[in-house]
Specification:
This protein has 637 residues and is α+β, with helices and mostly antiparallel strands. 30% of the residues lie in helices and 25% in strands. It contains 20 helices and 27 strands. The protein has a ten-stranded mixed β-sheet. Helix 1 packs across helix 8 and helix 3 packs across helix 7. The protein is globular and about 90 Å long. It starts with 9 loop residues before the first helix and ends in an 11-residue tail after the last strand.
């Protein structure tokens, strides 16, 4: 029965309970490696009753691969990533690793599972991945049966193996019942599935509610529905359900100690359900990662992270302080790491994040960058440069989809021909194509959007001298744009490098603005010592539209981008989504400036930008709607 050892003192029971909670908490901390925001659970947003879709139990059972190795798997879902342990050397790894994931009707539902071959000395190599919509999966497979998914090579989309997965979803009632079982396990010292009054008393004390502690006998009688002197799991679940509605008895989480909002019963239950799973060790996947690439790194990276030589983070100034740039994919609502060579990161930080580095730039290094860009541009136009294409694809193999490219690889005779590659028709559908009052993304890029210029300088652009007048140059009348909206489209080297018109209208004029060729990486943009956008070489395209008034489209050159090519001319009428031009080798940026109160930018883009978090978008995705017509248009990806 549940009445415990008669010789056991009250203090020894409490000591045992405290030890259990400490063990849960220590396991919970150990399962969240890293530093910065990664050191703890990603901050849980409040979920409304209407938006709560349940808690999914995802199990990675195992895989079948085409060769033997030691394997690990990662699950990326929303802004969290979890990893399994490393298997033995085999071509059929077994993990049987579980993780509970919160599902929201308007939140992320697409989970990406990546499989890595391991190399503990450095980073591990991604071999294949699959994606599944958890909500669709549980509808199609309600009994949580094991299902096989093809693992695809990130570079070629060829099948490289199979992944075996099961998934089930608890509804709110099931969540409450399962939570009661976990609560019970804390003080069920005899592990017989029942609580005695003494055990129940310890549980009430752990809840942190003084009122409940004083009413222990009354509450015990209320829970003991059949009057047998012990409380079963079902009886406790019934008590919690009724009591939490009438007079909440749980004030703080027994595992992490966080105070709970008594007015928000649903989120308190969600918090404790997920927290208990982390603490008890029942869930064998390790959490606390932002991206699958971070989760896959070997012990050398972990050592550098612990010594603060390498950090992951999301938020203000991460471009200047973090070693890794993390963006959020708009389509999947998942965090993605931008690939960039670590030596380049160190050199950029040395130059752009110090007065000394920028001082050297002023003493002649600008000319060096200019000459370097010109020489590199010429080199990338040689036949020999085509030899660099395979290694480029290998480095960015999970971020370049060759299936979208218009021509096969052997079509490109130089590296630059590949760099300015075209895509197949239909590869980038244009949102609300028949509505000119809907603006769209101008490029495959990492996007920052601000309803006002003031917001852009508060959340992102740290150059002290940034201004709309400085951006557009002296030959453009900038008065209409001074209090306008600003959208920054940053292209990385792996991106499709042709840019398109975000709006429909007529091209009034092109204005070339001479300048330097600084990098447009966030390390430089977030620097208070440098003014990238107002000092770099750029071309301003003025577009006159019926729906948005005048729109200033600014194509900005960058390090290694010595050439900005336009395929349109003054007087041309363009439709949104039409190609405007392209950047040659390197990474660069487009900035669109809208007149004040001419566009209502989509809320998700503004919310991410307010967190200083770039959004990964593709050409044609919806950007916003003109203010006179605010009818809702569904997002097309």
């Amino acid at each position: 029965m549940g009445n415990g050892n008669s010789t056991e003192t009250k203090e020894s029971r409490r000591s045992k309970m405290r030890q259990k909670l400490q063990n849960f908490s220590s396991r919970r901390r150990l399962r969240r490696p890293g530093s910065g925001s990664v050191s703890g659970l990603v901050s849980q947003r409040s979920v409304s009753q209407d938006d709560f879709a349940g808690i999914a139990l995802l199990t990675l059972i195992g895989a079948e691969m085409k060769f033997k190795d030691k394997w690990l798997a990662c699950v990326s879902f929303g802004e969290q990533t979890f990893r399994t342990g490393i298997s033995d050397s085999t071509d059929k790894p077994i993990w049987n690793s579980e993780k509970k994931l919160l599902l929201e009707k308007n939140g992320p539902s697409l989970a990406r599972i990546s499989v890595f071959e391991t190399n503990r000395l450095s980073k591990n190599n991604i071999v294949g991945y699959c994606e599944l919509d958890l909500l669709e999966f549980v509808v199609q497979e309600p009994d949580s049966t094991c299902k096989s998914f093809d693992l695809l090579d990130p570079a070629s989309s060829n099948v490289v193996g199979s992944m075996f997965i099961s998934c089930s979803v608890e509804d709110p009632v099931e969540t409450e019942t399962c939570f009661a079982k976990r609560i019970l396990s804390i003080v069920d010292y005899n592990e017989d599935g029942h609580l005695s009054f003494s055990e129940f008393s310890d549980l009430m004390n752990a809840f942190g509610n003084l009122v409940a502690s004083k009413k222990k006998e009354e509450l015990f009688k209320a829970a003991d529905l059949n009057g047998d002197g012990v409380v079963t799991i079902d009886e406790l679940a019934a008590l919690l359900a009724v009591q939490q509605e009438e007079e909440p008895i749980i004030n703080s989480c027994p595992v992490c100690g966080e105070a709970l909002k008594l007015s928000d019963k649903l989120n308190a239950m969600i918090h404790m359900t997920l927290c208990f799973d982390e603490g008890t060790g029942n869930q064998t996947m390790t959490g606390g990662f932002l991206t699958d690439r971070q989760a896959s790194y070997g012990w050398m990276f972990k050592l550098s992270e612990w010594t603060h030589l390498s950090t992951y983070d999301v938020g203000l100034n991460t471009g200047s302080s973090a070693s890794h740039i993390v963006v959020i994919d708009r389509k999947t609502k998942r965090l993605v790491e931008e690939l960039i060579d670590s030596k380049i990161v160190m050199s950029m930080r040395a130059i752009y994040q110090s007065k000394i580095g920028l001082g050297l730039m002023d003493q002649g290094a600008k000319e060096i960058l200019q000459n370097l860009s010109e020489k590199q541009g010429k080199k990338m136009n040689t036949v020999e440069s085509a030899q660099n294409i395979p290694s480029f694809l290998e480095f960015f193999k999970d971020q370049i989809n060759m299936a979208e490219v218009k021509y096969p690889l052997d079509h490109f005779k130089t590296f630059n021909e590949f760099f300015i590659r075209e895509l197949k028709p239909g590869a980038r559908p244009v949102a609300c194509i028949d509505r000119d009052d809907v603006a769209v993304s101008a490029a495959d890029c990492r996007l920052m959007a601000f309803q006002s210029v003031d917001d852009s300088t508060r959340f992102w652009i740290k150059g002290r001298k940034f201004s709309i007048k400085g951006l557009l140059g002296k030959d453009v009348d900038s008065d209409a744009f001074l209090d306008g909206s600003l959208v920054i489209f940053r292209l990385a080297p792996q991106d499709y490098h042709r840019f398109h018109s975000p709006v429909s209208g007529v091209i009034e004029k092109f204005v070339d603005v001479p300048g330097s060729l600084y990098t447009v990486n966030p390390i430089a943009v977030n620097s208070k010592y440098c003014n990238v956008f107002t000092e770099n070489k750029r071309t301003v395209v003025m577009i006159s539209t019926a729906e948005f008034g005048k729109v200033a489209f600014v194509a900005i050159g960058a390090t290694m981008v010595g050439s900005i090519t336009f395929v349109r001319k003054e007087g041309d009428h363009i439709k949104k989504g039409d190609e405007l031009g392209y950047f040659s080798f390197g990474g660069s940026t487009v900035i669109c400036v809208f007149e004040k109160d001419s566009i209502k930018i989509d809320e998700d883009l503004l919310a991410n930008s307010a967190r200083s978090l770039e959004t990964l978008v593709t050409v044609g995705m919806q950007l916003g709607v003109s203010f006179p017509k605010l009818e809702n248009c569904s997002l097309e990806s």
